[in-house]
Amino acid sequence: MGRDEFLRNLDAVKENVEGQLDDFLQQKIAEAARIAPGAEELVRILREFTLRGGKRLRAALVHYGYRCFCDRETETVCRVAMCLEFVQSFLLIHDDVIDEDDTRRGGWTVHRHYADLHRERYRRRDPNHFGESMAILCGDLALSLANEILGTLYLETKVRSALLNRMNRMIRLAIYGESLDVLSEVAEKVSEEEILLIGMLKTASYTVAGPLQMGAILGGAGSEDLERLSRYAIPLGNAFQVQDDILGLFGDAERLGKPVGSDIREGKRTFLILRALEKASSEQRDFLERMVGNRDVTEADVEAIRRLVVETGALDACRELSRRLVEEARKALEGCGWREEGVAFLEEAIGFMVERES
Amino acid sequence: MGRDEFLRNLDAVKENVEGQLDDFLQQKIAEAARIAPGAEELVRILREFTLRGGKRLRAALVHYGYRCFCDRETETVCRVAMCLEFVQSFLLIHDDVIDEDDTRRGGWTVHRHYADLHRERYRRRDPNHFGESMAILCGDLALSLANEILGTLYLETKVRSALLNRMNRMIRLAIYGESLDVLSEVAEKVSEEEILLIGMLKTASYTVAGPLQMGAILGGAGSEDLERLSRYAIPLGNAFQVQDDILGLFGDAERLGKPVGSDIREGKRTFLILRALEKASSEQRDFLERMVGNRDVTEADVEAIRRLVVETGALDACRELSRRLVEEARKALEGCGWREEGVAFLEEAIGFMVERES
Fold this sequence. Notes:
The structure is a homodimer of 358-residue chains. By secondary structure, chain A is mainly α. Chain A has helices spanning 3-35, 37-52, 57-67, 75-99, 110-121, 127-151, 157-186, 192-219, 223-250, 253-256, 262-266, 271-279, 282-291, 299-311, 314-333, 340-355, and strands at 103-104, 107-108.
C-alpha cells in the first residue's frame, strides 16, 4: 500500500464514520429537542465539534486492526470507530477546559463557544464559568454516548465484555495521563521519564494502541496478537507525541488548527523543552524557564525558543528518539503473519503519523 | 414493612454496597499506584468521596426494584448498585465544580480539596483552576468506572444491553437537566414548568426511576412493569426534589452536610422561590430578586427569606404539591401484583423520602 492508497483508505473510513456519526447525532438531537431547546443546543454543539474533527485516524485504526484478523464486512466495526470518535470529543472538550484553550480543530473550543453565546444572550453570572460548565456537560455527554453505543452492540458476551473493558481501561489511562499532565504543570520539577509516561498514557495508549486493539478484538485476535499490537502501537504512539511536540513549536498554525507556541504558554514541559533545558547554557535556561507557562509569550519569543531548541541540539535529539521508536514499531510487525491488507495499512501508518505536518 | 424494618433494610444494602465499592476501589488504587503517585491519589480521593456518601438510597432502589420481580440471590444486583453510586459520584463532583460549592456530604468537595492541596504543595498557576481541573478528571473517572462495571457483567446479551441503555439514557437526561439548570441560572426569566422539568431530569429520573428500573430489568420485569414503575418513580422523585428545596432553606446545615441557603447564593430558582416570587408584594419581590444569586447573602438574609416564603404561602404550596405527588406515587402501586417484599419497601420509601430531614 503506497501513500496514495493509504490516504484513499483513510478518506473512505472518514466518510463512512462521519456519515454514521451524523445519523446517530441527528437522532439524539431530535430526542433532546423533545425535552428542551437548551438540551437540543448542547447536542448540536457536540455534533458540530465532533464532525469538525480531523483525520479520523483512530477510526481507521479500529478498521484496520480488525482487517488484520478478519475480512468479513460488518457494520459493527464502524460502530466501534464511532465510539472512539466520541471518546476523542470527550477528552478534547475537557482537556480544552483544563488547558483554557480557545481554539481546536480550526474553530472555537466548546467552552469558548458557550462563553461567547453567554456574552450575546445573558447578563447574569460570569461568561467564562458558564462556558466551562456547559463544556464539562458537553464532554460528559460525549463519554456517555460512547458507552451507550458500545454497550448496546449485538455481539457475543465475551467479545463485548472484552471491548468495554479495553475501552474503559484506555479512558482510565487517558484520565490518569491528563491528571499527571495537570500535576506536572504545577510541579517545580518534571523528569524526562514523567514526560514520557504522560505521553504514553495520554497519547500512545488512546491514539494508537486502544483503537487498534479494539478493532483486533472484534476481528478475533488472541492475547499474543494483542500483545504484539501493543509492541507496535506504543512506540508509534510515542513517536506521534514527539512529532506533536515538534509541530507545536515548528508547525503551521493554520494547518494545525491551533496557535503555534500554545504548549509553551500553557507551561507544558514537553520532551523537546526538557531536552533543550538540559543542554542549554545557564543564560538560555533562565530565558526558557521564564517563557514556559508565561501567557504573554510573543511571536518573537517563540522564534527565539525555536532557535534555542535547534542550537542546543534538542530538535535533533527528538528526531533521533522518533527514529528509534519508529524502528521499534516496524520490528513488531515482522513475521506477525496477520492479513496482508491490515499489515500494509499499519506499515504505511508509521510514515504518515510521524512525518505529518498537522 | 414498618419504618424500623425499612431502615434496617436500607442499612443492610448500604453495608453491602460500601464493602464492595471499597474492594473494587482498592484494586483500582493498586493499579494506579503502579502507574504514578498522582494517579493513585486521584483514585484515593474518588474513593474517599464515594464512601463518604449518604444513605445509599439509589443502591437500595436497585435492590428492591429487583426484589419486586425476583427472589434469587445474586451478586449482580450489588454490582449494578455500585454503578449507580459511581454515577452519583460523577454527577455530584461535576455539579459541585459547576456550582462552585465547597462542601458536600459533610466534607470538602473534590475541587476544593485539590485546591487546598495545591496551596500546600505547589506554587505555579492558580489553585482554583487546578482544583477544578482535577475534579473534572475525578468525575470522568467515576463515570468510566460505572460503565466498566456494568459492561463487564456476565448477563444475557438482551438484559445487559437493556441495562446499559437504561443507565446511559438516565445519565443523558441528568446531563440535560444539569445543563438546563445552568441555563436557568443565567436566564432572565424561568417558568415553573422549566423548574419542574429540571427537577424531573436531574432528580426524579436518576434518583428514583433509573435505579428502580435497572433493578427491575435485572429481575426480569416486562415493559408494562417498567412503565408502571415510572408512574411511581417520577412523582416520588419530584416530591423528593421539592423536599430538597425545602430542606435547602429550612433544613439543618449539619444534618445536610452543606450550608443552608446555598441554593439562594447559587441563584437556583427553585419551585419554592418561584412560588414565593409569584405571591410576593412588589417590595418583597425586589428583596428576593436581590438575594437570589447573591454570593454575599447573610444568615439574617436567609432568615428573612424563610419568613417571606412562609408568609406568601409558598411553603404551604410546596407541601401541597408534595402531597399530590405522593398520592400519585401511591396510586401507581395499587394492584401491581409484584412481589410483596419489593412493594412493601417501595411503599415505605415514599414516607422516608418525602419526610426526611437530610
